[in-house]
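Bumping my old thread because nobody answered last time. Still need a sequence for this structure:
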């Protein structure tokens, strides 16, 4: 029996419904009419010979067969996006699209001024920024360039350490005016603390570096580093923060002799992308900007 010949447009519609939960949402995501989205789903269901979605009060729910297909269609989407980026400009040109991935903290607090400078210098360069604490795979072309706080271990990846985040214990001036400045780690039990929630590995990591945030006085817990930083600035409690960001927001360092450690920052790309000028350009320019920021606390302009 000859397997069905499937069209990528029908599979794009399938993925869009999975992501939005409705035909109307899929249509908006793809920029097509809702009737077109419905027709593509019906065509795909006819091709595979099974129903892929069930109507429910909450929208279209994927069937068991649809769930089995999710990883395959997501991989196809990644390949299609990589193909589009590769074809968006000549390899010798500094124009086109580069997909960049970074952690939430770096992507929101550190990279935007650098990307603005990059855009002013190279106006035809388009950046897709994926801000996520999930490590996206360079070897599977989920991204072209990655900024990470740990060294990539994938094969065929070019990685460069650009510097360190110098991390210490910080608080807002308002909080210290209310509670006073702690004189020792033991006194932290009398202060409201900020730390991770369910990330036990990070709790252990911080404890080994002098900050025990498993104590009952940890009144604010979140595994999101952006939320932690916002809580420190708002005066909710004491927590760890990179010195480069603490300087920007006027936070006050406490117990510098007890809580003080560095976190590596790396920039990486697949070695095959070296020949693509726009990707190599972003790798080099962003790497230099990050090195300047990590050394001085100020983004290069």
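Sorry it took so long. Here it is:
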């Amino acid at each position: 029996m000859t397997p069905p010949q499937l069209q990528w447009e029908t599979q794009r519609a399938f993925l869009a419904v999975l992501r939005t939960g409705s035909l109307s949402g899929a249509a908006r995501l793809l920029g097509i009419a809702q009737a077109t989205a419905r027709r593509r789903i019906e065509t795909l269901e006819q091709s595979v010979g099974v129903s892929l979605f069930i109507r429910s009060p909450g929208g279209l729910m994927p069937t068991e067969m649809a769930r089995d297909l999710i990883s395959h269609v997501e991989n196809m989407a990644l390949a299609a996006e990589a193909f589009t980026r590769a074809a968006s400009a000549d390899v010798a040109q500094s124009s086109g699209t580069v997909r960049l991935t970074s952690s939430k903290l770096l992507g929101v607090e550190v990279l935007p001024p650098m990307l603005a400078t990059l855009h002013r210098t190279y106006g035809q360069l388009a950046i897709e920024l994926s801000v996520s604490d999930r490590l996206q795979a360079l070897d599977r072309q989920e991204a072209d360039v990655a900024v990470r706080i740990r060294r990539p271990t994938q094969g065929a990846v070019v990685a460069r350490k650009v510097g360190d985040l110098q991390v210490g214990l910080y608080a807002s001036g308002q909080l210290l005016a209310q509670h006073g400045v702690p004189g020792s780690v033991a006194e932290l039990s009398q202060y409201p603390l900020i730390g991770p929630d369910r990330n036990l590995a990070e709790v252990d990591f911080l404890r080994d570096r002098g900050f025990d945030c498993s104590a009952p006085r940890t009144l604010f817990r979140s595994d999101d580093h952006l939320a932690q930083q916002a809580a420190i600035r708002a005066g909710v409690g004491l927590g760890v923060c990179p010195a480069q960001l603490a300087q920007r927001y006027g936070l006050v360092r406490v117990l510098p002799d007890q809580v003080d450690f560095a976190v590596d920052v790396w920039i990486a790309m697949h070695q095959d992308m070296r020949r693509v000028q726009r990707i190599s350009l972003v790798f080099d320019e962003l790497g230099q900007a990050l090195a300047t920021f990590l050394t001085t606390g100020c983004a290069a302009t």
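The radius of gyration is 24 Å. Let me know if any region looks off to you.
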